C-alpha cells in the first residue's frame, strides 16, 4: 500500500483519504526547449482540520491577526511511504467553505528551481554586494586590464562611447598617433560573468555546481558595465559615521530628535514644550535644517552626498573642495513628522576630508511687543581624517536588469539546465547535452501498459529564431541594413505546421570593427552618423580572446604609452585549439576574418533539434505503474527503453496516491552518449603540458561513481581509483623529444548507485613531434587547449 506524506515547515499536513495528488516533472519540453522547468503539482485540497488550521492560521477568515502570509511560499517536502520524494515549496491558493463551515485549503507544490527564482525576487544587479571586488579605476589599473594575461574579474574593453576611433588617417581620432590616444577615462569596465554568479551565490546563500562553470567558454564571458551615456564613475558610497560623543548642543532635545548614532532624526517638536523666551507670544514659522560641512579636502575631486530618508535615497548633492554647511535637508515642523536621515559620500577620486554635521530647529515667533524674533535649538558634531579609497561603485553603475532575468539569460545562452541537488540550496548547472550524457538507460517495458500507446508526430517548428536584443550601435545598424537581421542572430524558416521556436536573450551583442592591416579591433556604443550620439545599451555580453599583438596609443592619465599586445574583446574565444563564438549564427569573425561555425546554436541547441526533425522521430504517450524504487530513482535526464526503443522524457505526470505515471516521450536517435566530452579535431603540441578532463558520475547525488584506471608511459595521471563527485581530472604530459607519435590510454568506468557497471569510456592522449591530439577510443578527438593547459 502506498501512502503520501506532506510536510510544510516540517509540520505534517492532514490529507483527504481520497485526494488525488499529481506531480508534473519537466525540465525541457519539445514545445519550448528554451524554458527551464521543474516539478510542480496541480492544485489539490487538504481538509480544514485542527492541525491544518494551526499551520495556515485559519486563513479562511480575516478576523484572525495571523502571522501566516499566503503570498509567501512555504518550505515543504513530499514523502511516499516515509521515503523522501521531492523538496520545494507550497503555495496556499485559497480556502473553501461549505454551509458556512471551513472545509478545505487549496495548495500547490513547486520544486526547488522555482524556489531559486523566489529567492531572487525583483532584485537587480545593482542590489548585489560587490565588496569582494573592490577596484580602483585608475589609468594604471585600466591599462593593466587591457594587456595582462592574468585571470582578472575586471577588464576594460576597447569600446568607445564618446568618439569614432580611427587608425592611420591623421585625424584627431587617430589612435595610431600619440597625440590622439585612447584615454582611459573613455572606457567602461566589464565584469566576469562567473564572478557575478559567485556574488549571486553569496547574496542568496546558494551554491552552483558543474564542470561547465570552470570551462573557458564560461569563464571568459564578461558583462559590459554600462548604465549611462558618459563614463563618469564615482567611488563606493562612504557612510558618514558619527555619534553623540563630543556632540555640542546649545539646548536639550529630550524627545529623541536631533543627532544620534550616524543618523539624524527629524521629529515633530511641540514648541510649547520648549523653554521659551519671555517675549514669546506665538509661533509663526517652524523649520528643521540639516547641514553638512566638508572641509580640509586633500584634492579637488567632485563628491556626491547621498541623502537617505528612512533608508531610501532621497536626494544627491554635488560639491567639490571645501563647502560650508550645505543644506542637505529642510522640512517644516508638522504634526506626525518622524523621519530618520543617513548620509553617504561618493567621489570621483580618492581623497581625505573632515566633516561636521549640524542639526537646527528654528522657530520664528511673534513677540509680545508685536515684532518677530527667532528661537534656535542646535546640535553639531565634528569628525576629522576621513578617507575615501576611490573604489569604483559597482552598484550605481550596474546594468539595469533583474538578477532573475540575468541568470535565466545566461542559462539560455548555453542551453543549460539548473536543478537542485539537495535541500541546502545546492544547484547543478550544465548544458543540456552534458546533462543527458550523464543519464542512465532504464528499461521500463515490464511496467508499461503496452496495450494502449498513443503515437503522434512531432509538430515541427515553422520557424526557429535565436536572437539578441536589438542594438543601436551604428556598426550593428549597418549590419542589419545589409543582412536584414540582427548581428549574431539566427533565423531559419521551414514552413512546417508548428509555431515559432524563439530564444531571445535579454542581452545585447556588439559588432566589432577590426582596422585594416592591424590586429586591433574595437566597438562603439554610438548611434549612427552624423551625430554618433552615445546611448545606454542593454546589458552587453562579450568574450575575451587570448593575447595578440597590436599597435595603438593609450593615455593612462600620467603618460601616453604605446601598447603592442592586448587581449581583444568581441564574440570569439580560442578554446581547445579551436574557435568558439557567442553568435548564434555562423558569422565571419571580425578578429580572425574567418567563418566561425562553433556557434551557440551549433554547440548547445542543434543536437536536440536534429533529433526532433528526424523522419523517424515520434512522440508517444504511455501509462506505467512504476514501483516506488524506480519512481524515486528515474530522473528526467535518463533515457527510457520500451521494447528496445529509446526515448527521452518530455513530461512525467505522477499520481502519488495511485502510483500511475503518465509519460510523454520523444524518440531519441542519438547514439549511446559518451560521458567524456569530445568536440574538436585539433592536435596537441609536442611540448607537453596538462590535459584536464571533466568527468561526472551518473547520478552522483544518489550514489553513482566512476573509476579511473590505466598507466601511461609519458603522462602522469591524477589519483586513480574511485570518484564520487564530478571532477576535472588533470593529466601531466611530458614533452615529446622522440620525434615519433605516441599514445597513452586510460579507462573510466561508470557505476550506478547500486554498484552496477553501466559503461566505460576511454581517454586516449595522443602526442606527436610537433602536434598532437586527444582521442576517444573511436579515433575522434577530445578537447585540447593551448600548450600548457589542455582541457578535454
Account of the protein in words:
With 792 residues, the protein is mainly beta. Among the domains are: 196 residues, no CATH class; 153 residues, no CATH class; 103 residues, Immunoglobulin-like, CATH 2.60.40. The protein is 11% helix and 40% strand. Strands 3, 4, 28, 29, 43, 44, 45 and 46 form an 8-stranded mixed β-sheet that branches. It has a 6-stranded antiparallel β-sheet with strand order 2-1-6-7-8-5. Strands 15, 17, 18, 20, 21 and 23 form a 6-stranded antiparallel β-sheet that branches. A hairpin with a 2-residue loop joins strand 20 and strand 21.
Write the layout of secondary structure elements.
Blueprint: E1 4-8, E2 11-12, E3 22-25, E4 40-41, E5 44-47, H1 50-56, E6 74-80, E7 83-98, E8 101-111, H2 112-120, H3 139-147, E9 154-155, E10 159-160, E11 182-183, E12 190-192, H4 193-204, E13 207-209, H5 216-219, E14 221-224, E15 238-239, E16 248-249, E17 258-259, E18 264-267, E19 280-295, E20 302-309, E21 312-320, E22 323-332, E23 338-347, E24 351-367, E25 372-388, H6 394-397, H7 403-413, E26 416-422, E27 426-431, H8 432-437, E28 441-443, E29 454-456, E30 463-467, H9 474-483, E31 490-493, E32 500-504, E33 513-514, E34 521-524, E35 540-544, E36 548-555, E37 560-566, E38 569-570, E39 572-575, E40 578-581, E41 587-588, E42 595-596, H10 600-612, E43 619-625, H11 628-633, E44 639-642, E45 645-655, E46 660-667, E47 689-695, E48 705-709, E49 715-716, E50 721-723, E51 727-733, E52 742-751, E53 757-767, E54 772-775, E55 790-791
Parallel strand pairs: 10-34, 11-36, 13-27, 28-44, 30-32, 47-55
Antiparallel strand pairs: 1-2, 1-6, 3-4, 3-45, 5-8, 6-7, 7-8, 9-12, 12-14, 14-35, 15-23, 16-25, 17-18, 18-23, 19-22, 19-24, 20-21, 20-23, 24-25, 26-27, 29-43, 30-31, 33-34, 35-38, 36-37, 39-40, 41-42, 43-46, 44-45, 45-46, 47-51, 48-50, 48-52, 49-51, 52-53, 53-54
Amino acid at each position: 500500500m502506498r501512502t503520501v506524506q506532506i510536510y510544510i515547515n516540517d509540520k505534517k499536513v492532514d490529507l483527504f483519504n481520497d485526494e488525488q495528488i499529481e506531480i508534473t516533472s519537466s525540465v525541457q519540453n519539445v514545445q519550448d526547449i528554451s524554458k527551464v522547468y521543474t516539478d510542480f503539482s496541480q492544485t489539490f485540497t487538504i481538509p480544514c482540520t485542527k492541525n491544518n488550521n494551526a499551520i495556515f492560521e485559519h486563513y479562511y477568515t480575516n478576523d484572525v491577526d495571523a502571522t501566516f502570509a499566503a503570498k509567501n511560499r512555504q518550505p515543504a517536502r513530499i514523502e511516499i511511504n516515509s521515503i523522501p520524494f521531492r523538496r520545494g515549496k507550497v503555495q496556499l491558493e485559497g480556502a473553501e467553505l461549505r454551509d458556512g463551515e471551513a472545509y478545505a485549503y487549496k495548495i500547490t507544490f513547486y520544486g526547488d528551481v522555482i524556489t531559486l527564482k523566489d529567492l531572487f525576487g525583483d532584485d537587480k544587479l545593482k542590489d548585489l554586494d560587490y565588496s569582494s571586488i573592490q577596484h580602483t579605476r585608475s589609468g594604471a589599473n585600466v591599462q593593466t586590464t587591457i594587456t595582462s594575461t592574468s585571470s582578472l574579474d575586471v577588464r576594460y574593453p576597447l569600446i568607445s562611447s564618446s568618439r569614432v576611433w580611427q587608425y592611420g588617417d591623421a585625424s584627431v581620432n587617430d589612435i595610431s598617433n600619440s597625440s590622439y590616444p585612447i584615454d582611459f577615462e573613455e572606457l567602461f569596465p566589464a565584469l566576469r560573468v562567473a564572478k557575478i554568479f559567485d556574488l549571486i551565490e553569496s547574496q542568496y546563500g546558494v551554491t552552483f555546481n558543474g564542470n561547465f562553470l570552470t570551462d573557458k567558454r564560461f569563464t571568459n564571458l564578461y558583462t559590459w558595465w554600462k548604465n549611462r551615456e558618459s563614463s563618469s564613475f564615482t567611488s563606493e558610497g562612504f557612510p558618514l559615521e558619527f555619534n553623540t560623543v563630543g556632540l555640542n548642543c546649545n539646548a536639550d532635545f529630550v524627545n529623541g530628535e536631533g543627532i544620534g548614532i550616524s543618523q539624524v532624526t527629524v521629529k515633530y517638536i511641540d514648541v510649547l514644550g520648549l523653554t521659551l523666551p519671555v517675549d514669546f507670544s506665538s509661533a509663526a514659522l517652524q523649520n528643521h535644517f540639516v547641514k553638512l560641512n566638508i572641509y580640509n579636502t586633500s584634492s579637488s575631486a567632485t563628491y556626491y552626498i547621498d541623502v537617505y530618508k528612512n533608508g531610501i535615497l532621497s536626494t544627491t548633492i554635488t560639491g567639490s573642495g571645501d563647502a560650508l554647511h550645505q543644506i542637505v535637508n529642510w522640512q517644516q515642523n508638522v504634526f506626525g513628522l518622524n523621519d530618520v536621515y543617513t548620509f553617504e559620500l561618493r567621489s570621483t577620486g580618492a581623497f581625505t576630508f573632515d566633516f561636521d554635521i549640524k542639526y537646527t530647529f528654528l522657530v520664528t515667533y511673534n513677540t509680545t511687543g508685536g515684532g518677530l524674533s527667532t528661537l534656535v535649538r542646535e546640535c553639531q558634531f565634528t569628525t576629522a581624517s576621513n578617507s575615501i579609497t576611490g573604489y569604483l561603485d559597482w552598484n550605481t553603475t550596474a546594468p539595469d536588469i533583474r538578477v532573475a532575468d540575468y541568470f535565466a539569460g545566461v542559462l539560455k545562452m548555453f542551453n543549460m539546465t539548473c536543478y537542485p541537488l539537495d535541500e541546502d540550496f545546492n544547484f547543478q548547472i550544465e548544458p543540456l547535452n552534458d546533462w543527458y550524457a550523464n543519464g542512465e538507460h532504464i528499461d521500463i517495458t515490464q511496467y508499461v501498459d503496452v496495450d494502449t500507446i498513443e503515437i503522434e508526430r512531432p509538430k515541427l517548428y515553422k520557424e526557429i529564431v535565436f536572437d539578441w536584443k536589438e542594438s543601436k550601435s551604428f556598426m550593428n545598424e549597418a549590419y542589419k541594413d545589409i543582412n536584414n537581421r540582427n548581428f549574431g542572430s539566427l533565423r531559419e524558416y521551414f514552413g512546417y505546421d508548428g509555431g515559432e521556436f524563439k530564444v531571445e536573450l535579454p542581452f545585447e551583442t556588439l559588432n566589432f570593427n577590426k582596422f585594416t592591416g592591424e590586429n586591433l579591433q574595437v566597438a562603439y556604443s554610438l548611434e549612427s552618423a552624423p551625430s554618433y550620439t552615445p546611448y545606454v545599451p542593454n546589458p552587453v555580453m562579450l568574450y575575451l580572446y587570448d593575447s595578440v599583438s597590436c599597435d595603438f596609443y593609450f593615455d593612462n592619465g600620467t603618460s601616453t604609452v604605446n601598447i603592442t599586445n592586448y587581449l581583444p574583446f568581441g564574440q570569439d574565444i580560442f578554446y581547445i585549439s579551436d574557435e568558439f563564438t557567442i553568435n548564434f549564427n555562423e558569422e565571419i569573425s571580425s578578429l580572425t576574418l574567418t567563418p566561425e561555425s562553433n556557434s551557440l546554436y551549433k554547440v548547445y541547441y542543434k543536437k536536440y533539434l536534429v533529433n526532433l526533425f528526424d523522419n523517424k522521430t515520434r512522440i508517444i504517450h504511455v501509462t506505467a505503474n512504476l514501483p516506488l524504487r524506480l519512481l524515486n530513482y528515474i530522473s528526467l535526464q535518463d533515457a527510457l527503453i520500451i521494447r528496445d526503443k529509446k526515448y527521452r522524457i518530455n513530461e512525467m505526470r505522477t499520481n502519488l496516491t495511485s502510483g500511475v505515471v503518465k509519460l510523454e516521450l520523444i524518440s531519441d536517435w542519438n547514439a549511446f552518449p559518451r560521458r567524456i566530452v569530445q568536440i574538436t579535431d585539433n592536435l596537441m603540441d609536442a611540448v607537453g603540458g596538462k590535459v584536464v578532463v571533466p568527468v561526472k558520475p551518473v547520478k552522483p547525488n544518489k550514489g553513482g561513481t566512476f573509476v579511473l584506471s590505466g598507466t601511461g608511459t609519458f603522462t602522469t595521471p591524477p589519483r586513480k581509483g574511485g570518484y564520487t563527485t564530478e571532477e576535472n581530472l588533470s593529466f601531466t604530459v611530458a614533452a615529446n623529444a622522440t620525434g615519433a607519435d605516441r599514445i597513452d590510454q586510460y579507462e573510466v568506468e561508470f557505476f550506478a548507485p547500486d554498484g552496477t557497471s553501466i559503461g566505460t569510456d576511454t581517454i586516449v592522449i595522443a602526442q606527436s613531434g610537433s602536434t598532437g591530439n586527444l582521442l576517444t577510443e573511436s579515433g575522434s578527438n577530445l578537447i585540447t587547449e593551448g600548450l600548457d593547459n589542455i582541457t578535454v
